[in-house]
């Protein structure tokens, strides 16, 4: 049942700062939503902060201070890798989630937003897929609480993304529209704006694909611009005309479709951190904050997590956990330090034939569809279960 109905006809609070009681219940809610499960010392710490404002300020400060994890030994020791190295990355990330909390929760959100799939990448290159995937992860991790415009600019030239959505074969006279389409539909603005108006046309996609031509992935796993492969002709879309290239496309998205992009991303943040049924008034207010802060992610997360809306009783326990959240949260709340064998079993449990949330391998470019309700197909290898946070 949507939270708005569960709360009766009373309108839920908005984004005004939460000033109600700061008890163990509110502290636990914050810790669970921003991490993976809630362990006693973290709930105690949030409770000791004395208010939602102080607890969220500390949460963000700690997340921003977290250094990038050290690369695995094989990353620097060799230019080749196989499935075992992919498995190693998956296990390493599960461990990062268990120990680092919010920054990895944000990275998981962006992984499901800017999707790549390791098997699809592997089928298109003789380069080391595990190295490409690790570089992709570090890009998401580095910008998880940074600037969204910067993240959009960098993700399109990430070699894993160039391989996955065929940017590396997008050339003058042979334009490939895959990345242009997903850049608009899934990564920035969505198909329609808040008022239902279409954000782009098929003609726009064709013109943007031309503008994105010319990038290849070199043998040392770097993106490189080849002018001979770039379509230098005039492109026209959204009322603009020019010999646009990659940077101009990104600039025009945030100039011509800024409001639509802010709304689309904030709606996804809301459904990930609050509940599956978005409160459109709250989403619109978050989008206004995103715009006012030039697409910085921290002000949006601070406003949401410190808001009276976030601590509404009707929204506590209203979100269904994903398999990754469930498994990592179980380890944390049981205070289990996993052995390598247990981590291997967790990795296997998340594969498509089991719980269907294999890291670095969502089912398609749209990502994991969410768990509302959980799968009840009864097909072999699938499980029907329910847990909320």
Please give the count of helices. Answer: 19
H/E element sequence: HHHHHHHHHHHHHEEEEHHHHHH
Strand order of the largest sheet: 1-2
Low-pLDDT parts are 4-8, 372-386
Helix content: 40-55%
Mean pLDDT: 93
* Cα gyration radius (Å): 21 Å
The helix-and-strand class reads mainly alpha
Tally of DSSP β-strands: 4
Name the quaternary structure: single chain
Gross geometry: globular
Structure description:
This protein is mainly α and 389 residues long. It has a domain at 93-258. Helix content is 51%, strand content 3%. The protein has 19 helices and four strands. It has helices spanning 3-6, 24-34, 40-49, 52-65, 73-77, 83-100, 102-111, 118-122, 129-143, 148-155, 159-164, 178-188, 202-211, 246-256, 258-273, 280-292, 297-305, 323-333, 340-349, and strands spanning 215-217, 223-225, 235-237, 240-242. It has a two-stranded antiparallel ribbon with strand order 1-2. It has a two-stranded antiparallel sheet with strand order 3-4. A hairpin with a 5-residue loop joins strand 1 and strand 2 (223-225). Helix 6 (83-100) packs parallel to helix 9 (129-143) and helix 9 (129-143) packs antiparallel against helix 10 (148-155). It is globular, with a radius of gyration of 21 Å. The protein starts with a helix and ends in a 40-residue tail after the last helix.
